[in-house]
From TrEMBL:
This is Undecaprenyl-diphosphatase. The gene is uppP. NCBIfam families: PRK00281.1-4, PRK00281.1-5, undec_PP_bacA. GO terms for molecular function: undecaprenyl-diphosphatase activity. Keywords: Antibiotic resistance, Cell membrane, Cell shape, Cell wall biogenesis/degradation, Hydrolase, Membrane, Peptidoglycan synthesis, Transmembrane, Transmembrane helix.
Length: 287
């Protein structure tokens, strides 16, 4: 077994675990890292790997927020009460939250299924990644400056309406088209612009990732097929496990960070990284 490739897979897992949740673009960083330390695998396997590795990160959300996203519960009743019906086993607040999440998934799901391969051909390159990093970095700075000192209109997940969820879903669509935008970055910026508090925007973004990433991963696995070699399976599992562990730490860090700080630091990071990428590939990279 090639331990060098497993080491690379672990590095990809670290990058995924960090960048999936911080609004700095996981896909963008994966594309850039693959330029410098590519996995020795087929192009078809790598295209599947860079999506399915995100399942590890998504499972971290499920573990951390289980009590907030699992809609089924054991009903509480006394002897005087009648035997509870089926509806009493469902937490209606969480049920409606999932309905709103599914509504928010519609724009990206529809466009992604129809045009995902075309978008990859057109936009999965360093120029698009760098420009998306810069543009949304600037957007973070502008949005945060305009909202400085202002109170949010939506301060709880239960206050998100179906219409608001759909609007946030359209921001997620931008990330589905342009790598480097950051799915979390696009939805958080959109939510902030729509009057959602930072904490609620981050939580809704985390939950929104669950069906999106599970669906995208399933699609990629079906397209690739289930004929993994032992090495390919080891690479995929290593990347997912590392992404899961790192994501646990990063999510907890981010939820604590945004209670005391804004997102400007991520905006500046995106701008600087985008400029570095354009400079490297445009001026320094060999022809």
């Amino acid at each position: 077994m090639d331990f060098i490739e497993l080491f690379k897979a672990a590095l990809f897992g670290i990058i995924e675990g960090i960048t999936e949740w911080l609004p700095i673009s996981s896909t963008g960083h994966m594309i850039l890292f693959n330029e410098f330390m590519p996995l020795d695998v087929s192009e078809e396997f790598y295209r599947m790997f860079e999506v399915v590795i995100q399942l590890g990160a998504i499972l971290a959300v499920v573990v951390i927020f289980w009590n907030q996203i699992f809609p089924f519960q054991k009903p509480v009743y006394t002897r005087r009460m009648k035997k509870p019906g089926l509806i009493s086993y469902i937490n209606l607040d969480i049920f409606w939250l999932w309905m709103k999440i599914l509504v928010a998934c519609v724009p990206a799901a529809v466009i992604g299924l129809l045009f995902s391969e075309k978008f990859e051909e057109m936009f999965y390159n360093y120029t698009t990644v760098a420009l998306a990093l810069i543009v949304f970095g600037i957007a973070f700075l502008i949005v945060e400056e305009r909202h400085k000192g202002k109170g949010a209109k939506v301060n709880a997940l239960s206050e998100i309406t179906f219409r608001l969820a759909l609007y946030i879903g359209f921001f997620q669509l931008i990330a589905a088209i342009f790598p480097g935008t950051s799915r979390s970055g696009a939805t958080i910026v959109g939510a902030l612009m729509l009057g959602v508090s930072r904490t609620v925007a981050a939580e809704f973004t985390f939950f929104l990732a669950i069906p999106v990433m599970f669906g995208a991963s399933l699609l990629k696995i079906v397209q690739f097929g289930f004929h993994f070699t032992a090495m390919e399976a080891a690479i995929l599992i290593t990347g997912m496990v590392v992404a899961f562990v790192v994501s646990i730490l990063v999510i907890k860090f981010l939820m604590g960070y945004i209670k005391r700080h804004d997102f400007k630091v991520f905006g500046w990071y995106r701008i600087v990284l985008g400029i570095v990428v354009l400079a490297y590939f445009g001026l320094l990279a060999p022809a």
